[in-house]
Each structure stands twice: as C-alpha cells, then as structure tokens.
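Hi W., the threonylcarbamoyladenylate complex you wanted:
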Amino acid sequence: MPSVLNLTSENIEKAATALRAGELVAFPTETVYGLGADATNARAVAKIYEAKNRPSFNPLIVHFPDVEHVSQMAHMSPVANQLAAHFWPGAISFVLSRKPECPISKLVSAGLPTFAARVPAQAGAQNLFRVAGIPIAAPSANRSGRVSPTLASHVADDLRDKVDLILDDGPCTIGLESTVIDLSGKIPTILRPGGVTQEDIEDVLKRQVIVASSNTESPKSPGMLLSHYAPSLPVRMNAECANAGEAYLGFRDTPHAEMNLSISGNLMEAAANLFACLHDLDDPRWTGIAVAPIPERSLGRAINDRLRRACAPRA
Ligand code: TXA
Ligand code: MG
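Structure:
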C-alpha cells in the first residue's frame, strides 16, 4: 500500500522529490484528488495512464502554482487573462495553445497542439507545485470508470500500490471536477461543466460562450477532438514491415525501423514515445507511417486505440 502522509511542509518536500524522480503522487485539490506526475517526463506521464488503466489516451490537465508559470508555456489570450484574473486559483481549467518551446510531454496533450492548464486554490497543492518546480499533469486519482476521489482513503482503496505516495488534506471542499473551457480558438467553448458555471463565465466576459454537447457526435467534445488529430501522412498499424516509401515505426526487435517505440518491448516506454515518434515521422520524405504490431494488453490497448484513430479515414 502507498504511504499516506499529512500535508506538512516536510511531507510536501518528500512528495516534490518523488515527483521530480518520475514517481506518481496523489494530492488534494479543492475539486478532487489528483494523480500527479512530472508533465515534462513522458515516462512518468505514461505511468498515470497505466495506473488508471485507461483504455485510451485522454489528454490530461497540467497544474501550476500561478498564472505566471502557465504563461511561460502557453499562449494566454486576452480572454484567458481575463478569466484567470477572476477564477484562478480555482475550479476551472483552460485549454490553451502550446508555446513552441513548451516542455510539456506530447503524451499529456495526446498529440493535440494544446494543453489544459489549471491553478488550483488548495494552498497545499500550490505549495507542492512550487516546491516541485515542474508542471504537474494530473487526472482524477481513480481507476478509469470509477468515481472521482474526494478523500485520501478513496485514492488508497482504489489505486493501492499503483501510486507511490498520497498527500492527505481531508475532504475536498468542492468534490466535483473543474470546468474545462477551450480558449485556444476564437470562441470560448466549455468542454466539460464543473466547479465554475457557464453563467459565472458569461458574467465576467459579458458575452455568451458555447457549451460543447456531451453527445459524442459533437466535434468539439474532447473525445472527438482526439480522433480529429492525426499525422498528415496516412498511418497503417499491425504492419510487419514498411512498404516502399513508408517510414517504419518499430516495436521490440523489429528490423529496418526508422524509429522504435521500445526496443525492449516495454509498453510504458512505447506509450511515452508514441506521440513524439508519430510527430517526428510525419515528414513529406515519406508516403506513410507503418507501425509494428503492439500487444493488445495493459497500455498496449491505449496505444492501439490511438493508432486506430490515426488510421481511420480522414474527414
Ligand atoms: O478537477 C479536476 O479537473 C481534476 C483535478 C485533479 O485537477 N482533474 C481532472 O482531470 O478531472 P481529468 O484528466 O480526469 O480530466 C481532464 C479533462 C478531460 O475531459 C479531457 O478530455 C480534457 O480535460 N482535456 C484535457 N486536455 C485537453 C485538450 N488539450 N483539449 C481538449 N480537452 C482537454
Ligand atoms: Mg476523471
């Protein structure tokens, strides 16, 4: 079982050290407990998906101690600054465009040119991010399909030895996930309702915002956004070798590979490398990207889910 530690400054130091070393740390926010990892370390981020047993790579929210840290890595539009001034720190996350030099792992963004940023109000969480000195990727600290945790004991019962350390600060005051609003386009669009309401946001902006329908037909809903992202080259999965003109993305000891997801056949490493490899091979030198077979187990299911989307006929 993981160690559950009270949120003292000594334990915050311990948790920050664990995060910097690439370990998973669960921490409280005012919404729900998050399962945190170093957002700049793709292998640490891959551990999150593994621990949650997520069947697909949903993009994750990245946590910061304040808005200044966010603006170093993302483009803050005037609307984003206006909303930040009113609602941060708080229960709202902004989807923003990545700056070119943004060090956040592509796995966090699930290959999208954006990432979701949040500055939580919980003082202990803010201290943790400040002491750690790195952006912290964190979904809710529960296994996929289970309810979000609002107590440290929920996290311990659900994730058990999948998490290295849990910081305990009692019950979450809001107990419902943050609102996710996409500010990367022209019109602010609420992707997920949450702690801050549509009315609150419209009061501040003095304009209407769009609410993406939760209907999966909507191209604005996060799940669908994923299927809209694909390399510009066609992708072929379960390929034993490349055809003429194709780049080959190998796995394990596949010969003649331009790049390899994991030479040792480690699925965690493969997940960590997936989006960066697809990005690098998406080059007009090639006519397509052929990807070696990936076993359909553990993180391999999420990798194959992503590859199926990348292979799907383009709109
Ligand atoms: O309250 C919360 O938001 C908690 C605490 C820990 O901060 N976090 C949380 O994260 O609920 P998660 O991973 O369970 O939910 C992230 C949501 C998903 O709906 C995801 O699709 C959306 O944010 N999201 C993240 N990045 C995105 C992006 N670049 N574009 C569109 N949607 C994104
Ligand atoms: Mg969740």
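The chain has ten helices and 15 strands.

W.
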